[in-house]
Amino acid sequence: MTTKQLVGQIRKKNSFLCIGLDTDLDKIPPHLLKEEDPIFSFNKAIIDATNHLCVAYKPNIAFYEAYGIKGWKALEKTIGYLNANYPEQFTIADAKRGDIGNTSTRYAKAFFEDLNFDSLTIAPYMGRDSVEPFLTFDNKHTILLALTSNEGAYDFQTEKIDGQELYKKVLQVSKGYKNAENLMYVVGATKASYLKEIREIVPDSFLLVPGVGAQGGSLKEVCRYGMNKQVGLLVNSSRGIIYASNDTDFASGAAHEAERIQKEMEAILIGLA
Ligand SMILES: O=C(O)c1cc(=O)[nH]c(=O)n1[C@@H]1O[C@H](COP(=O)(O)O)[C@@H](O)[C@H]1O
């Protein structure tokens, strides 16, 4: 999907919500465990109930790898279902990969070609030659971790190197990578106070912002400094939406919570909030 198409969807739906499919067999409604593929059944019901309220889905790959071949099959079925039935949805494989160039190329093939995701999260730590292989794919997006939502972000990301915080260096240096127009960045919603300075470095890039909902980040705070002319934000909530209800009404419970966030987004977009 092109960035222009993504922006078109955001405008059409008045939503920049990304729903995280962090599907955990210990948390899904127990009646689904009798199904042949409980992970896929859960994801399908959530997607069918919420797709009109969001513009993106983000399966976190750890939740699938945790179940071995069964989990990987459920992931394949989920991305296949999204691409076949809701091709307007932007899909994010949250895998946080990145390795020497030769290996990164294989990761890129796995997620962009074999599974056909629109985008993939990548750790920037190994530098230019670990990131550039992902950037060579047309209309595929590489989402680089800049300033993450967790406490450990303060261990390295905010530390200064030659007078500049590491996360700022990641933003600045990566702008010079070949095909850098295919880059987006992760900034945690819990780090909203940093967004003004982040926007000074990457005014036009899309930001994936996880950390509202279960981690307590504020949507309003994120929008105040993070939004740009094309909106430029994908705000993710996983547990807060998909586990809003743990009963037979789980899909409508998820839709209800997604709608609550979408309405808040709509109010911000039309300037009421
Ligand atoms: O790359 C991510 O998506 C990510 C980066 C980050 O800084 N913080 C973060 O929480 N995430 C992911 O976003 C999701 C957040 O889930 P909830 O806290 O349940 O909404 C999880 O899949 C995390 O792995």
List the helices and strands and how they pair.
Blueprint: H1 3-13, E1 17-21, H2 38-50, E2 56-59, H3 62-65, H4 68-85, E3 90-97, H5 101-114, E4 119-122, H6 128-135, E5 141-147, H7 153-156, E6 160-161, E7 164-165, H8 166-174, E8 183-187, H9 195-201, E9 207-210, H10 219-226, E10 233-237, H11 239-242, H12 250-269
Parallel strand pairs: 1-2, 1-10, 2-3, 3-4, 4-5, 5-8, 8-9, 9-10
Antiparallel strand pairs: 6-7
Helix pairs in contact: 2-4, 2-12, 5-6
The structure holds orotidine-5'-monophosphate.
Residues 20, 22, 60, 94, 121, 148-149, 186, 188, 210-211, 213-215, 236-240 line the site of orotidine-5'-monophosphate.
Task: Characterise the protein shown here.
The structure is a single chain. With 273 residues, the protein is an alpha/beta fold. It has twelve helices and ten strands. The chain has one domain (3-269): TIM Barrel. It is 44% helix and 17% strand. Strand 8 (183-187), helix 9 (195-201) and strand 9 (207-210) form a beta-alpha-beta unit. Helix 2 runs parallel beside helix 4 (68-85), helix 2 packs parallel to helix 12 (250-269) and helix 5 (101-114) packs parallel to helix 6 (128-135). The protein starts with a helix and ends with a helix. It binds orotidine-5'-monophosphate (OMP). Orotidine-5'-monophosphate is lined by residues 20, 22, 60, 94, 121, 148-149, 186, 188, 210-211, 213-215, 236-240. Orotidine-5'-monophosphate binds at residues 20, 22, 60, 94, 121, 148-149, 186, 188, 210-211, 213-215, 236-240. Keywords: Lyase.
